[in-house]
Specification:
Length: 183
């Protein structure tokens, strides 16, 4: 299976991410809303591990088993968010940057992107928290400036499997806790 390439027949679009806990997640989601992002309420605040990926429904059980094994073998780590960054002009994205936790995210992402999720992601992996995407330049500039002093520290306890429902909303379906067997 190749991320982003839909298999034939019915399926599900999934994503795997580290959720940003409250109050930080809510604050960043409200910022997206205030910028006029039409998808702000449909996308929970997160650090992507696997971008939107189309799966055949029958493949989901193997993916869940794989994710459970990855999480069981991992350990918690600290994430410190500090300030903003951007992928412009290559990609119209403004994000909150990780000052600590990059190595943990990279390690987990590499393990998750193996087995039934093996494939080449569309972009090199760069852990971040998107706060503005495909918005007018003035909104992107505002996000970059207003969150330049943003700070958040939290422990990454694991990651979550999200599914993009027919209404376009990404919903958290299952959590995978680091160090937990969960069988």
């Amino acid at each position: 299976m190749v991320p982003g390439m839909p298999p034939p027949g019915p399926g599900a679009t999934i994503g795997i991410a580290i959720p940003i806990p409250d109050p930080f997640g809510t604050r960043l989601q409200r910022m997206r809303e205030s910028l006029g992002d039409p998808h702000a309420r449909a996308i929970p605040t997160h650090i992507t591990l696997v971008p939107p990926t189309r799966l055949a429904r029958h493949a989901l059980a193997a993916v869940v088993a794989h994710l459970r094994d990855v999480a069981a073998a991992e350990r918690r780590f600290w994430i410190r968010l500090r300030g903003t960054g951007t992928f412009r002009p290559v990609s119209p994205v403004v994000f909150v940057a990780l000052a600590e936790g990059i190595g943990g995210c990279e390690r987990v992402q590499a393990r998750v992107m193996s087995g039934p999720l093996a494939g080449e992601p569309p972009f090199p992996y760069h852990p971040h928290v998107t706060i503005a995407h495909n918005l007018p330049d003035d909104a992107m500039d505002r996000a970059f400036k207003e969150l330049a002093g943003f700070r958040a520290d939290f422990e990454a306890w694991g990651f979550a499997l999200y599914e993009n429902d027919p209404d376009g909303v990404w919903r958290r379906r299952r959590d995978f806790v680091f160090g937990a067997d969960g069988r």
